[in-house]
Structure formats: structure tokens, C-alpha cells
């Protein structure tokens, strides 16, 4: 088999899923070189087993580039997981200084760097997918009182049921929504508008009711390939209560739909993304869009599809579900991305249910936790021997310290059940969650019958 050296810029379970997908290649002899935010035990093991190297670089672009330069003669390509290095030009730096092709958009086309830019592009190419919105730039106002006055004027015209979003990325955690995070104009201004305005531009937009779904699009810069839709669970607690998080779980259902979606939702989602993609290509982008240039977060009310936001990489957790469903060899997909001849990707019609186990203080579940953070997954891996590929275990924000595995401060482990029926996939995911020996917690309602039925009822389906 042909030898392939791959550099993975890694953070969390999303990157662990990439590592797993690459190592499963039946067409290539893969060596994995991993630039990691922490000493992820799974990544360390896989780098060693494949004859590659693991380096704790953090997400600092300088450190990533230094590592890439040391191993450049071993590399065929690089792929980037987390958004920060993409926004901070890791692709440009690695390509310029090592001559290694990188699968990630350039920083210029990392649309998630600015929600304002996203809204402006959508206003041009797909205005019906935009909610009503207004941008507040602190540089346009002499003081905060002037900005507040302008906000109050806009609210009097469009109503107070709005969402408040900072322009720059916050993994969904800087977003405040009427009825969920505030219930009065005073709270909106004091707790969300003013704090966000201190850091830069703020978007205030109408609150859109409906059911959310995401579609990630993979591109070689010329073609745009949709992947199966995913439902993500952002809120910390069951029944979608609590603050937004990076994502507590997710599920997939069929290659082109979720239980609450219809054909029009899928069609509109593809059309909106295609229009954005074509707009970027009109601006001169081509190979600069290589990777996952559009990870589209949508919401449907049964009649219309609106765009909530646009990201520029695999979602976490959504990308994990997607890689599990991918039928084609992921190494081959990446090579086609680089060559510019990726015209299709085949996916399995499997149900996948992902549940995250998270630290005690995550999502504000506890104010503090001062106990031992040791994590023992031995019983989970014993269970995997029974379920084999029907159970996937992805180690996320874990670190190997003095031969012990310790939980960090973010999401710790993703447990994914894979089956022909969504109820069975959920059962496998939760069985594995229960086998974790660690001070971690999780949501229990990801892909539950009750939640799915509620989603269908919410939009009259």
C-alpha cells in the first residue's frame, strides 16, 4: 500500500474521529503526525502505532508551524480541526513554510470569523434565509448611551423577541436569546448587549422559532458536496435548558433528512449553501475554499429555512457523526480534495447518536469541583468488544499525566452508538456513558423518542 503522512491539527473528539477515520484506511499505509492542544491519550497511542509523532503544540500557530517544519519531509497533507488556527492563518503559514497542502479554508474565507460578514453575504445571495437583523458597531457611537438608544429604537419597530450575538466566534456561548437567557429589555441591554459591545460589533436579530439542523459541506474549491444533516444539542441540560455549550450531543437519521425534516428543508439547505459558495468563487476564491468551507446551521419552521450561522470546519460534535457515516476512504477523499477532483462522497444510511460526558463544572452544572479528576474507561472499552463498530469511543479533553488519564475543563468523552434504528443507537451510547468511572456528567435526552416527537410537533409534522 502507498504510504501517506498526515498532519492533524487537533483538539477534542472531532480530531480523534479524524484520527480514527484515517487509521481505518484500507487503501493507504497511514502515518499520523498530530499537533495537539493537549496530551490526548488516544492520539498519543495512534501516533505511536502508525509510526508517526505526537506533539503538544496548543492551538498556537507558531508552535504548529514549528512542528510541521520539523516533519515536512514526511507529510503528504495537513488537515485542521479547530477554528482558531484556521482563523489565525495556519493554512497559509504551513503551506508557505513547508510546501504541504492544507485541508482548511484560508483565513480570508473562514466566514465564522465574522457573523456580520455572514449576514451581509446572505443578504446579497439568499436574503430570505436571513432573519431581520441590525449590526451595532461601537465605533459608530459616541458613547454606550447612544448605542442603547439606537437599539431601543430598533426594538420598538421589530419587537423584543431577539437574539444578541457577538460578531466574533464564541462557540455559541456568547449568544443570548429572548425567553431563554433574558425576558426583559433591561436584561437584554445590561447582561448581553453592553457586555458584547465592549468587545466589538454586535448583531441583534429576530428570534426564529423552529427546529435546528446542520449541514456540513466538503469542497475541493470547485465542487461543493453536502454531508448528511445532523441535529445538535447546544444547551447544557435536559429539555434544552441552561446555557449554550459547545454541544452536549448530536444524532443523524438518514442521508438527506432528520425525523422532523422534509424534502424542502434539505433542498433549501443545499440551495442556500450553493449560493454562498458561488458568491465566494465570484470573489476569486477557488482552492482557498478547500476543506469544509461551509458548515451551515439552519432552522426550519416547517415552511421556511433560515440560516443561524456559518462555520468553516467540521462541527464538534456534528463532524464526528459525519465521519462515521462516510462510506468512502477518508484518506482518498482528502487526496481528491487536494487534487481538485472531488465530485461525490458516498455515505452509509446509518443512525448515529452521540452523547458527551463533560466535567463537573461544565455548563455551570457546579460552581467548583476540587476532587480527583481521574478517568477510567476500561469498562467502556470492554463494552466495545461486545458492540465492536456499533460503539465508537472518542477521547476529547483528556490528558495523560504521570500514566494517569485526567479530565480537563471542557467536553471529555464522546460516546457514539451506531445502528439501523435510532432507539438502538441511543441505547448503545448511553450504556457506554454509564460505564465511565469518572467525575463526569451528561444529558440523558439526546435523540430520545420524546425529544424527537416534540421536534416534529413543534413544526406541525
Automatic annotation (TrEMBL):
Recorded GO MF terms: ATP binding; metal ion binding; phosphoribosylamine-glycine ligase activity
InterPro entries: ATP-grasp, PreATP-grasp_dom_sf, PRibGlycinamid_synth_ATP-grasp, PRibGlycinamide_synth, PRibGlycinamide_synth_CS, PRibGlycinamide_synth_N
One Pfam entry name: GARS_A
Cofactor or coenzyme needed: Mn(2+)
Coiled coil: 384-411
Family annotation (PANTHER family): PHOSPHORIBOSYLAMINE--GLYCINE LIGASE, PHOSPHORIBOSYLAMINE--GLYCINE LIGASE, CHLOROPLASTIC
Protein name (Swiss-Prot/TrEMBL): Phosphoribosylamine-glycine ligase PurD
Native species: Methanohalarchaeum thermophilum
Organism ancestry: Archaea, Methanobacteriati, Methanobacteriota, Methanonatronarchaeia, Methanonatronarchaeales
Amino acid at each position: 500500500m502507498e504510504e501517506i503522512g498526515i498532519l492533524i491539527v487537533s483538539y477534542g473528539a472531532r480530531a480523534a474521529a479524524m484520527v480514527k477515520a484515517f487509521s481505518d484506511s484500507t487503501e493507504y499505509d497511514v502515518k499520523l503526525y498530530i499537533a495537539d492542544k493537549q496530551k490526548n491519550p488516544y492520539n498519543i497511542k495512534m501516533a505511536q502505532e502508525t509510526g508517526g509523532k505526537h506533539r503538544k503544540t496548543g492551538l498556537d500557530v507558531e508552535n504548529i508551524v514549528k512542528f510541521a517544519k520539523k516533519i515536512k519531509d514526511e507529510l503528504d497533507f495537513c488537515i485542521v480541526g479547530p477554528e482558531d488556527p484556521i482563523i489565525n492563518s495556519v493554512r497559509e503559514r504551513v503551506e508557505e513554510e513547508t510546501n504541504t497542502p492544507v485541508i482548511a479554508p484560508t483565513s480570508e474565507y473562514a466566514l465564522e470569523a465574522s457573523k456580520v460578514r455572514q449576514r451581509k453575504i446572505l443578504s446579497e445571495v439568499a436574503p430570505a434565509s436571513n432573519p431581520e437583523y441590525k449590526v451595532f458597531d461601537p465605533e459608530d457611537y459616541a458613547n454606550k448611551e447612544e448605542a442603547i438608544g439606537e437599539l431601543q429604537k430598533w426594538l420598538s419597530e421589530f419587537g423584543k423577541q431577539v437574539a444578541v450575538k457577538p460578531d466574533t466566534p464564541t462557540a455559541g456561548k456568547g449568544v443570548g436569546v429572548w425567553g431563554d437567557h433574558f425576558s426583559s429589555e433591561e436584561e437584554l441591554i445590561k447582561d448581553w448587549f453592553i457586555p458584547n459591545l465592549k468587545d466589538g460589533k454586535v448583531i441583534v436579530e429576530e428570534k426564529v422559532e423552529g427546529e435546528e439542523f446542520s449541514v456540513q459541506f466538503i469542497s475541493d474549491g470547485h465542487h461543493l458536496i453536502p454531508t448528511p444533516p445532523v441535529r445538535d444539542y447546544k444547551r447544557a441540560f435536559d429539555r434544552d435548558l441552561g446555557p449554550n455549550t459547545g454541544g452536549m450531543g448530536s444524532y443523524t437519521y438518514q442521508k438527506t433528512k432528520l425525523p422532523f425534516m422534509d424534502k424542502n428543508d434539505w433542498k433549501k439547505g443545499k440551495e442556500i449553501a450553493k449560493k454562498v459558495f458561488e458568491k465566494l468563487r465570484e470573489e476569486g476564491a477557488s482552492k482557498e475554499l478547500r476543506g469544509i468551507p461551509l458548515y451551515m446551521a439552519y432552522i426550519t419552521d416547517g415552511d421556511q429555512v433560515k440560516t443561524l450561522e456559518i462555520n468553516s470546519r467540521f462541527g464538534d460534535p456534528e463532524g464526528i457523526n459525519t465521519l462515521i457515516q462516510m462510506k468512502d476512504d477518508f484518506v482518498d477523499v482528502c487526496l481528491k480534495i487536494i487534487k481538485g477532483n472531488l465530485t461525490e462522497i458516498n455515505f452509509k444510511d446509518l443512525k448515529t447518536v452521540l452523547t458527551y460526558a463533560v466535567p463537573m463544572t461544565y455548563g455551570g452544572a457546579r460552581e467548583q469541583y476540587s476532587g480527583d479528576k481521574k478517568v477510567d474507561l476500561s469498562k467502556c472499552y470492554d463494552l466495545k468488544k461486545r458492540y465492536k463498530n456499533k460503539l465508537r469511543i472518542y477521547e476529547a479533553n483528556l490528558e495523560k499525566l504521570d500514566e494517569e488519564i485526567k479530565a480537563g475543563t471542557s467536553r471529555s468523552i464522546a460516546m457514539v452508538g451506531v445502528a439501523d434504528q435510532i432507539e438502538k443507537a441511543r441505547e448503545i451510547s448511553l450504556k457506554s456513558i454509564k460505564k465511565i468511572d469518572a467525575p463526569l456528567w451528561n444529558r440523558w435526552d439526546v435523540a430520545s423518542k420524546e425529544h424527537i416527537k416534540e421536534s416534529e410537533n413543534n413544526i406541525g409534522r
